[in-house]
Design brief:
Blueprint lengths: L1 H13 L4 H6 L13 E5 L5 H10 L6 H11 L8 E5 L5 H10 L5 E5 L5 H10 L5 H8 L22 E5 L5 H15 L2 H9 L4 H14 L6 H13 L7 H10 L36 H8 L8 E4 L5 E4 L2 H17 L2
Antiparallel strand pairs: 1-2, 3-4, 5-6
Helix pairs in contact: 3-4, 4-5, 6-7, 10-11, 10-13, 11-13
Length: 338
């Protein structure tokens, strides 16, 4: 009875001859489109009438009036939210109104994993159908968003936080890059900043060390040890000799072929840590929270060397003699035996 009384008020407000028919449609599921799915974009500030027309044009609702009556009866006219909505199954006008009132906009899940470079991240962005590689790189190469914490940054390399993002199809490169930088600023919280300051490390130095750790190991217990190796070397002005920095230099020069050679190790680039001591000019990838943590809290180990066991873990050594024996076992003899 209460719903009928409200309907009569609606009839008076709308004053349409088909109002009774529209009322009868409120709980009748409808699907007028033939495609497997349709998307309807609701602009910011759109009126109920304009929204109703868009939904009817897409054959989501049987008639604009049915949607307007449903919105008025439900009291949701001022609650309808902008965004893109996906429709696939039959739905009543009441259900469509409820979705718009909840703001149940369509998003897709996109994962940017740890250790991606700007180029890699741009390719994930493009593969998700969110835009082009070029559009993403234009935004990612602008360091303005992080000038406050890293005034010497040349790009946003290292500051695009790896995570899974729920993104609308209409999300452009600017919006996504903004979200990734904002996520980095949340992850690099007061605790990590205090730990960095206690070690005398700038934000850029922390993120750069973390990016090396991220590229060198995916084995969680090793992160703080790899961080210790690099910081031990930095302390005695010993070259880092980090292969991923050479690969990064080769990619910058468009010379990376997928195979690291002895000739590659001679490339003249400030990112080549075989030729130049100290940290490279900036991060070489996007580190996750665990690698940022390792950068500011390295283990207490005195190791200066490590070599891969070819299973995702490494052998760590204090002396060159120990390291050479590990190289013989885990690189030379290992690959000869295969």
């Amino acid at each position: 009875m209460k719903r009928l009384l409200l309907f009569l008020l609606v009839c008076g407000a709308i004053g349409a001859a088909g109002a009774w028919w529209a009322y009868r449609q409120l709980d009748q599921p409808y699907r007028g489109f033939d495609a497997p799915e349709v998307f309807v974009e609701i602009p910011q500030g759109a009126t109920v009438a304009a929204i109703a027309e868009r939904l009817a044009d897409a054959d989501v609702v049987v008639h604009p009036l049915a949607f307007r009556v449903a919105a008025r009866v439900s009291g949701s006219e001022r609650m309808l939210k902008a965004g893109e909505y996906r429709f696939a199954d039959p739905a009543t006008p009441e259900q469509v109104v409820a979705r718009l009132a909840r703001g149940d906009v369509y998003t897709r899940s996109v994962t940017f994993r740890e250790g991606l470079t700007l180029w890699d991240t741009a390719e994930v962005f493009a593969a998700a159908g969110l835009g082009t590689v070029e559009e993403f790189l234009i935004e990612a190469r602008d360091p303005a968003r992080i000038q406050g914490i890293d005034p010497d940054a040349r790009s946003l390399e290292g500051y695009l936080f790896p995570d899974t993002y729920q993104l609308p199809r209409s999300a452009g490169a600017k919006r996504i890059v903004d979200a990734m930088v904002a996520n980095f600023l949340r992850a690099f919280d007061a605790d990590l900043r205090a730990a960095a300051a206690a070690r005398g490390l700038s934000v850029q130095e922390v993120v750069t060390i973390a990016s090396l750790v991220e590229k060198e190991t995916a084995h969680p217990p090793e992160r703080s040890i790899v961080s210790a190796v690099y910081q031990n070397r930095l302390r005695i002005n010993m070259g880092l000799q980090c292969d991923p920095t050479v690969i990064y230099a080769l990619r910058l020069a468009n010379r990376w072929t997928g195979n690291l050679t002895r000739e590659n190790l001679r490339i003249d680039s400030p990112y080549n840590t075989y030729r130049y001591a100290g940290l490279p000019p900036g991060p070489i990838a996007s580190p996750g929270r665990a690698s940022l943590e390792a950068a500011v809290r390295p283990s207490a180990d005195s190791y200066l060397y490590f070599v891969s066991r070819n299973d995702g873990t490494h052998v760590f050594s204090n002396t060159l003699a120990e390291h050479n024996r590990a190289v013989q076992q885990w690189q030379i003899r290992y690959f000869r035996s295969r």
